[in-house]
Amino acid sequence: MSAAFSVASPIAHGGRLDAARRAYPDAPQPWVDLSTGINPHAYPLPEIAPEAWTRLPDDDAFAGLDAAARAAYRAASDVSIIPGAGAQAFIQLLPRVFPARRVGVLGFTYAEHAACWSACGAIVGTVDALDELARFDAAVLVNPNNPDGRIIPPDALAPLAQEMTRKGGVLVIDESFMDFTPRSSAVALASMEGVILLRSLGKAYGLAGLRLGAALCAPSRAAFLRATLGPWAVSGPAIQVGARALADLHWRAAAAARCAADAARLDDALTRAGFDLIGGTSFFRLGRHDEARSWHRRLCEKGLLVRAFPERPDWLRFGLPGDEAAWDRLTTALEVG
User: Fold this and answer.
1) Domain co-membership, 96 together with 153
2) 262 vs 332: CA distance, rounded Å
3) What is the mean pLDDT of residues 132-154?
4) Same structural domain for residues 126 and 202?
5) Which of 26, 28, 62, 225 is most exposed, with minimal Cβ within 10 Å?
């Protein structure tokens, strides 16, 4: 039995159950995937109108999605909202639309940002302090951060946004995990020429497979993004589901409360198992343990996939179990060791 497994992508991501099954063929079935930072209690899918499948999305459909997103994100009228196939689509697109020679990324964070800018020829540097980002042509930060949940308040980001605007640079703020902490959003900065803010429906709404996200920015920046994406950047079904989900503020409030309670329950289980809690969001928790690699292997042997970090061998990230059977398997595994 292998103690490790590889993935096809050059960057390791969560959710690779196929690789886990190959590496641990004797693990009990079904696997419990705790390796992603996704709400396990997804927004209930509405009935999708047949024409959403058979017709290209029209202006009214996009207008409905825009209105729902604008209200959900509390975006002002002078902010453009561009839908796309998840935040990842924009992460890969931005370096091509707004090329920069020197790019600073506030680390340790989601690796796709640095990889995509590097692939477009930029010299990418990872920094530890926010004020260091001002010396770059483009700056990137994930807020709340993945994997430690660090949140930088909007007031602290404003000087950097102003500096990037002044010198014609760009500040990318990836808010993929922001939905349940809306007061921490930097959406008030999104109208500035130097700011592009990213949002996703894959995390809080548990709809990663829908592939729907958005970029919020000044109209001048939006024009370049829209031209590059083309007229139908997202599908009719995604528009219909996304508009419904974003408008359902009651569901979002209830989901936020449920995830917060589950995160506290997970903290308790991890603490009792000897993990030092060093961060996270209400979608996932980050723990440190001197024997993290051994824990990762033992959990995989029990059919429980959590997220390991080659760059931080003493870290493990745990997503929320989706039902009581999954909770029982995890807590039993943590108690037995």
Assistant:
1) yes
2) 17
3) 98
4) yes
5) 26
DSSP string for 94-124: HHHHS--SEEEEESS--THHHHHHHHTT-EE
* Residue 202 C-alpha from the chain's centroid: 7
Closest CA to 122 of 135, 137, 106: 137
Find the domain containing 141 and state its range: 50-247
Characterize the bridge pairing of strands 307-309 and 312-319.
antiparallel
d(CA 91, CA 302): 35
**What gap in Å lies between CA 240 and CA 49, rounded to an integer?**
8
Give yes or no: residues 165 and 296 share one domain. Answer: no
Structure tokens at 274: 């000897």
**Residue 94: phi, psi to the nearest 5?**
-55, -45
Give me the mean pLDDT over the 287-303 stretch. Answer: 97
The CATH number linked to 31 is 3.90.1150.10
Which whole-number Å values give the CA distances from 111 to 79, 237, 302, in the listed order?
A: 28, 30, 28
Q: What mean pLDDT is predicted for residues 3-7?
A: 42
247: left (phi over 0), alpha (psi -120 to 50) or beta: alpha
Nearest-CA neighbor of 17 among 328, 307, 314, 309?
307
Mean pLDDT of 242-246: 98
CA–CA distance, 208 with 22 (Å, rounded to integer): 23
Work out how many domains the chain is built from and give that number.
Answer: 2
Are residues 177 and 265 both part of a single domain? Answer: no
137: which 2 tokens? 């042509």
What span, in angstroms and rounded, lies between the C-alpha atoms of 238 and 227?
20
Element (H, E) at 162: helix 154-166
Per the confidence metrics, is the pTM higher than 0.85?
A: yes
Token look-up 């009228």 returns: 77
Residue type, 63: A
